[in-house]
Amino acid sequence: MITGWHVCGFGVGLMLSINCHADGAAIAKTGAEAAPACQICHGAAGEGSAPAGFPRLAGLGATYLQRQLAAFADGTRVNAVMMPIAKALSVAERVEVSAYYAALPVPVATLKSAPAPMPTPDSVGATLATRGRWADKLPACEQCHGPGGRGVGHDFPALTGQSATYLANQLAAWKTGARPPGPQGLMAAVAKKLSAAELRAVADHYAALPARAAQ
Amino acid sequence: MSAARRQLYLGGALAALVIAVGLYAGGVFDNVGRQASARRAANDLTGDPTRTELAAPAARTGASAAFQPPAESEIPAGEFGDAVRRGREIFVDTPRAAPAYVGNSLRCVSCHLDAGRLADSSPLWAAFVSYPAYRSKTKSITTFQQRLQGCFEYSMNGRAPPLGAPELVALESYAYWLASGATLDPNIAGRGYPRLAPPAQMADFARGETVYADNCVLCHGADGAGQRAPDGYAVFPALWGADSFNWGAGMGRISNAAAFVKANMPLALPGTLTDQQAWDVALYMNSHERPQDPRYTGSVQGTRQDFHATEDSMYGREVAGKVLGASGAPKPFKARSAEPERLITPNGRRLFDKAEDR
Lengths: 215, 358
Known about the structure:
The complex is a heterodimer.
Chain A: H1 4-20, H2 24-30, H3 39-42, H4 62-73, H5 82-88, H6 91-103, H7 124-130, H8 142-145, H9 164-176, H10 186-191, H11 196-208
Chain B: H1 3-25, H2 30-41, H3 49-54, H4 78-92, H5 94-97, H6 108-111, H7 113-116, H8 124-128, E1 133-135, E2 140-142, H9 144-155, H10 166-178, H11 205-215, H12 217-220, E3 227-228, E4 234-236, H13 254-264, H14 275-285, H15 300-307, E5 318-319, E6 322-323
Helix pairs in contact in B: 4-10, 9-10, 11-14, 13-14
């Protein structure tokens, strides 16, 4: 015979199991305890917010996203908004929410990879993005982030679909050390070779690339 | 560079030269000499092997002192400029731009960084002013186009385009244009990869594995297969396995791979590995299986004797219980089905015929 206590116990058990099994989609859409819903700032489709400089998360590598949340949580990636949010998430929750955003569709992936056309001589951003400055040991961005900056694997996130504000902020943060230098210290090494004008030009270049393939 | 540091470098170079001369007189390099002559009988990627062997190990060619090719924006208009642009396109996107001759996903630019422009990265302009030359690999005078054929056959694990094929003409045009104003000199500074002194400790697989895990895995993967963009475009080249260069390629020589790695890897951080780390990781990379040497004689040991009889090659040697190169006869080459996509120049001219028209 099912009593009220049974129902109550079942309900408590259900709540516990939900709490223990982190649900990436739920965290993204409704938040988790002290952490507000990701989508408030990062958009319902994980597309980010250009005016505020909040990044696109959809389709970025899961390990990359996890690493960022860990860095916010331990304070090595300095950001007043994200640090308390990441701290409020358990490790399991960070894993789940990273997997959720990594699995969201990447509209730009349908563009076909091809060598970038020759940048005009005065286009600083396109030149650094597609040609680099090898005399200064500075490879082109797309050498690692792939043709068109659309990302490669788990560790080289897409640059397209990000706002110029966000990209410029990140490059500046690598220069000052407000963001961890990334795997093998690569991004700090690269960013330190860019002047303020150059990093802005690179950010503008990728922000201007089509975020979606022509329909 | 500060004056004090310059003096330090000069002093170091002089000391190294004095020590090298002393050691040579003392016969310490005898073994190296034997290896070098064996190498002459085997592979030759950078062209004239005597050039690199004559260079004192400490005497690195500084990239700053090297010849500078013209800027890409200076490629001229007209038919010749079209061929130069087409050559560059083949160079940076080889599997798609020359599908009839490429058997893997490598690109020329995988080993010749910055579209063949970068000194100490086996730049195309330095190769152009170095041929024709006698090559021990072919035991004949090799022209520049013939040298390019070798890249297709070995490094691209493909098939040599016939002499005069549009692909070779375009690549030759690009190389000639890059060399505009360069001295006709096979010893031009910046050619090849700056050779390393023999390692202090014999190159070691286990140490190389650690170097690889710490510095290479991020891009090339634990399985050495490289990484691709979501649409399949190979962004990071395969270092071994079926999709990499075959056993006949110059990069299969440990000394050559070590020199490349030291001067060029990891991207953005070249020169950060020690010489010993470069030797160790080069041996590690070349201790994995890869496509058969096209010169295969019917047996691994016969092929080793004829083309790899040197400490510098792992071909035919046993690693982890398996003999490298024991994969049987070379697989027949199959041209990629994809056709070059841009046969029409920006000016609307039809530059090359489609493969089936040839």
